Amino acid sequence: MQLTDIFRYPVKGLAPESLPFVDLEAGRPMAGDRKFALAHKASKYDPADPVWVKRNNFVVVALTPKLATIVTHYDDANGIIRVTDHDGADHSFNLSKPEDLSRFGSLIENYGGAAQPAPYTLAHVPGGTLADRDTQTLSLHNSASHDAVSASSNIQLSRRRWRGNLWCDGLPAWEEFSWIGKEINIGSVRFAVTERIERCAATSANTSTGERDIDMLSHLSTTYGHRDFGVLCRIISGGRIQPGDQIQVHN
Question: Where are the beta strands (DSSP E) in the chain?
């Protein structure tokens, strides 16, 4: 069993960037993952008191599926977000400039709708994350489980639908669910596998077209008897991981 891919999502709701390696800290989420989110007009997020709030306060793929097509890259050192939009146009935003923050919000507003009213503002919790769960975890997915869902749905699904951080090969489909309550090593980094991930409507969005092409929740429920995909992991001891690292499960 080995790690094959690492992804992070600099802006919650937008598409991921692939990483050649990542340095992880015990008890912390992946650095830069869901570092930002777009708060809509009805959001309870308060920039004067920036704390974690629930996902319905932000623009999300479940309600705005075209978000899944917008590719992002975050330059941590310089505070620059680079975006390739649904039409293939490239944009760059300096987060230290208010006018760039406004331009960024305006770009994403083009994909929004009544369920997530404009204007949009970029939200950030210093030292924290705006992931769906306030649990300081990251997600691990099994390529064989993805292939099983792809085959059973008769759709060539992109792994980006699952919005996962880590992907692994070399184990049977759904084997990762048996790791709940166990510890694993990826390279030298140790994780506790804490729970299965119940999915939301975001997984129905085609990440190339931005259209809903399957009712994924119904498909999972009907075919497998659950609506879960992937597992959450808490970092016990930190270090660097990279694709090719071996995975060991501890009983």
Answer: 2-8, 17-18, 22-24, 36-39, 71-75, 80-84, 90-94, 121-124, 138-142, 166-169, 183-186, 189-198, 228-237, 239-241, 247-250
